[in-house]
Amino acid sequence: MRTFLRSILARLKPSQPEVDRTGFDPHAYWLNRGKTYERDFSYDPRYTEQENALGAILGRLDFNSVLEVGCGFGRIGEVVERLKPGIDYTGLDISPDQLVGARRRLPNATLIASPLEDFQPDRRWDLVLAVEFLLHVPPDRIEDVVAKLKAMSAGHVVTLDWDTPVKGRIAPHNWRHDYQRWLGPRRVAVSTAGIYHWQLGDAL
Fold first, then answer.
1. Residue 38 domain flag
2. What was the pLDDT predicted at 18?
3. Which of 16, 102, 113, 136 is deepest in the core (most CB within 10 A)?
4. What is the pLDDT of residue 89?
């Protein structure tokens, strides 16, 4: 009986330690962090793994235009440009400071400084791409955000985000979501993250 009760209690425990997010403002956080993000960025093998895995997924898709949500200083935009030189690329980021770096790396891109919820485009893109973006969306907004990514896509949505429990406390600007619920099964595992691919016509 004790073993049975312990197993029940173990399942009831949260998969991650609770994080105190009292007073946390995601917009203010990213506007401030964006001022030094590129300068403080440390390139490690995890990012090479991400870029190689994304390149393999994107290389199998048919697209001539891409919107990258949370494009930052253009790291993933460069991956897309190498894969499809001259692609019709639009990058969206809340931080004007991050976009300074993106303009250096992607001189022919259309770059827009705006929170996603304020962005009201009059077009759709063949591919909507979001890398390590959804993990920064609070749980009460995640479903609406994923729905907006789908609405802006004329073909594909590809995301890469943390989806595996890790030891220790997580930072207050990170959340782990059930991406399979909205985007279908994980296509590729990349360290503690997963790549998800939804395409127009999927039932989800």
1. no
2. 61
3. 102
4. 98
In this predicted model, what pLDDT tens digit does every residue of 133-147 receive, in sequence order?
A: 999 999 999 999 999
pLDDT of residue 120: 97
Residue 56 lies in a domain: yes
Strands 193-199 and 186-190: antiparallel
Q: Is 112 helix (H, G, I), strand (E, B) or coil?
A: strand
In whole angstroms, give the CA distance from residue 134 to residue 111: 19
Q: Give the separation between CA 103 and CA 40, rounded to whole angstroms.
A: 18
Nearest to 125 by CA among 201, 190, 48, 67: 67
Range of the domain at 125: 45-199
Rounded Cα distance between 100 and 153, Å, is 26
Find the CATH number of the domain harbouring 189. 3.40.50.150
The two three-digit tokens of residue 35, written as one number: 């001022």
